[in-house]
Specification:
heterodimer, A: alpha+beta, Ubiquitin Conjugating Enzyme, 4 strands, 14% strand, globular, B: mainly alpha, 3 domains, 3-stranded antiparallel beta sheet, two-stranded antiparallel ribbon, ubl conjugation pathway (chain A), ATP binding (chain A)
Chain lengths: 153, 513
């Protein structure tokens, strides 16, 4: 990774510290700055309220010309997070063709937090969960809350 | 037959002279000689095009560039724009000339603006400049020496701009439609800006990609899908015609493929049918085979049941119906002969078996066609294996008996005809599966049968011992010609009926099975 990219990641970390998002904590390791550990609380107004989620943000070598890669380390019942051991997300500005180099990690964190409040079933990675969300909201809410208790406490 | 056709159509007088000289030198091959002499008398008559053939042209990379240049030159004067700007306009309109001229005549300024060619842009061409106090939003560098922005004003340092373009061109293969790196900006990076920022191998790659987008944008052009092939095919057949026409084209690299879907040649089956059939086979064939071999259906609710123990007394998990696995009759009627069914004539068993047979028909029907389809695919491979072995032995024969190379070529043509005919036969079975019965299907099936017999006859000859093959030369050549002829008849007939809408292919509604 180039020195320019490192410089930019450092600067982005400082930006995140200066303007922290509610319920979001970043564990930053200066020895390994291309991998951020994020602790995100389920937003109060969402079905994930009360849950504590561990996420990972990995910066590719080509950063910021390629988007960072986000993965949920805590299991979550959500249409936009893959329901497997990867917990990957691939939508909006996280897609290589949407990402522009001036975009920042802080926007990524905002995107994730907003998706917890309001999932996007039209760009889903888990089609059955999206279907549940669209056609049977009560059932969706119940399962999501159940998963919070089981995996995210 | 095919190779002779091509030979005819491309023959010029010089070739003819060469051929005569050749055949004089090899006087002892009477048959070949006569054939050539006969053919060469008709050099001015182009062979009649068959109904299953479509017009197409093979284009080299040079042809493609020349085509672009010609279109640009033709339109340049009409638009009163220099060729460079005309090329940008063409790419902007995805090489749709009518739309370009239409829109341009309608609102010239808006078109120029959208393509990044407005008067303003012309009067102040893009340039690299130093802006005091500027901070690059990508690398966070303060006061970089060189910065660049297009008219949209999204300014970045030149290094970052270049790196962005490199990523797009090298990694993502984009060219004509790279957007400004600015957040949310959709302005396309025009070629003037690009030329300012990229050089060397990147520029070469960019130009290469631009040529590719030309072929990708043009509806009448498609790349030959063969690995490493650089040719494109020009063909007029449109997507909406594909239910009626199967446009097989032959690239100069030797690859035969369908212009509609770029899969390997699949005449006589239309693209939609092929797609559906391949999907069905991938999904179903193994499962269907297994179901057919290992399961029966509950005589009452038709659930598919696998027998998982030795006992014939079956209880359907779903509807609790109790029946006998052997005779399919109601279990309670078995009386004392439990566990030893020999009551074939009972009425209930008889009826149950009839119903079973009926519901299995769809499955069996599919398997009938699938097995024949798969068989020809497999046999084509085996034919090739045998041919390769034979070829080796023929080479040995050549060495020991002094036979010439040309003398064993009949084997090569026989093998090629076999491959081609089996490929056609294979697809006739997929075709027949979806073909609704009418008075023409009988003819189709007869044609299929005739071709199949011709193919099997020829295929059989390959299994003869090598030392006999030389003696079978004339017979083999006859059979090869006959196979090719049967294939043409089948394809011709089917193509005509398909084009006229005389055949009803059930590819929209899936048959239950």
């Amino acid at each position: 990774m180039s020195t320019g990219a490192k410089k930019r990641i450092l600067r982005e970390y400082a930006e995140c510290q200066n303007d922290p998002l509610p319920g979001v904590k970043i564990n930053f390791d200066e020895q390994n700055m291309t991998k951020w550990e994020i602790l995100m609380d389920g937003p109060d107004q969402s079905v994930y309220a009360g849950g504590h989620y561990k996420l990972e943000i990995n910066f590719p070598n080509e950063y910021p010309f390629k988007p960072p890669v986000v993965s949920f380390k805590t299991k979550i019942y959500h249409p936009n997070v893959s329901n497997d051991d990867k917990g990957s997300m691939c939508l909006g500005l996280l897609r290589p063709e949407e990402w522009k180099p001036p975009n920042k990690v802080i926007s990524v964190l905002h995107l994730i937090r907003n998706l917890l409040i309001e999932p996007n079933p039209d760009d889903a990675i888990e089609l059955s969960i999206a279907n549940d969300y669209k056609t049977n909201r009560a059932e969706f809410d119940k399962t999501a809350k159940d998963w919070v208790k089981r995996y995210a406490k | 037959m095919d190779s002779e056709d091509e030979f005819n159509s491309s023959q010029v007088s010089e070739d003819e002279f060469m051929m005569d000289a050749d055949s004089d030198a090899e006087d002892d091959y009477g048959v070949d000689h006569d054939d050539v002499g006969f053919e060469s008398q008709h050099t001015d008559i182009k062979p009649a095009k068959h109904a299953y053939e479509v017009d197409f042209k093979v284009c080299s990379p040079e042809d493609i560039e020349a085509q672009q240049a010609r279109q640009v030159a033709d339109t340049s004067s009409l638009l009163e724009q220099p060729p460079e700007a005309t090329a940008i306009l063409f790419r902007h309109f995805r090489w749709n000339k009518e739309r370009l001229i239409d829109k341009y005549m309608d609102n010239r300024d808006a078109v120029l603006e959208a393509a990044g060619l407005s008067e303003e842009a012309a009067s102040s061409p893009p340039r690299i400049e130093k802006v005091p106090g500027f901070v690059c939003d990508i690398c966070c560098d303060e006061d970089p020496e060189e910065t660049f922005a297009m008219k949209c004003g999204h300014r970045f340092c030149v290094d970052c701009y270049k790196q962005y373009l490199r990523t797009k061109i090298k990694d993502e293969g984009e060219a004509a439609r790279i957007r400004c790196p600015g957040d949310g900006c959709n302005k396309i990076v025009d070629s003037k800006s690009l030329n300012l920022l990229i050089t060397g191998d990147l520029k070469e790659r960019y130009d290469e990609l631009l040529t590719r987008t030309y072929v990708d944008d043009k509806e009448n052009l498609k790349w030959c899908p063969a690995p490493e092939c650089v040719y494109a095919i020009d063909c007029k057949v449109r997507d909406k015609e594909l239910m009626r026409v199967v446009p097989t084209v032959h690239c100069d690299c030797g690859h035969d493929f369908c212009f509609g879907c770029t899969l390997d040649d699949h005449q006589p089956a239309p693209c939609a049918l092929v797609k559906k059939w391949l999907k069905k086979c991938a999904d179903d064939s193994e499962t269907a085979n297994w179901i057919s071999a290992h399961t029966k259906e509950c005589p009452k609710c038709h659930s598919t049941i696998e027998k998982n123990g030795g006992c014939n007394h079956m209880t359907c998990r779903k509807c609790r119906h109790e029946f006998c696995w052997m005779c399919m009759g109601i279990w309670s009627e078995h009386g004392t002969s439990w566990y030893n069914c020999n009551r074939y004539e009972e009425k209930s068993g008889h009826e149950a078996r009839d119903a079973q047979a009926k519901s299995r028909q769809a499955l069996e029907r599919y398997l009938h066609y699938y097995q024949r389809y798969a068989n020809h695919e497999q046999s084509a491979k085996l034919d090739k294996d045998i041919y390769l072995k034979t070829e080796k032995k023929m080479q040995q024969l050549q060495n020991t008996t002094g036979m010439s190379w040309i003398e064993v070529q009949f084997l090569d043509s026989a093998s090629q005809a076999l491959q081609q005919c089996r490929r056609t036969l294979k697809w006739t079975y997929a075709f027949a599966y979806y073909l609704a019965r009418n008075n023409l299907t009988q003819i189709f099936e007869d044609n299929q049968k005739d071709l199949e017999m011709a193919v099997e006859n020829l295929s059989e000859m390959f299994e003869k011992p090598v030392d006999q093959l030389q003696g079978l030369k004339v017979e083999m050549m006859d059979k090869t010609a006959y196979c090719t002829k049967r294939r043409i008849i089948l394809l011709d007939d089917t193509a005509v009926n398909l084009r006229e809408g005389m055949l009803d292919l059930d590819v929209i509604h899936e048959r239950e099975c």
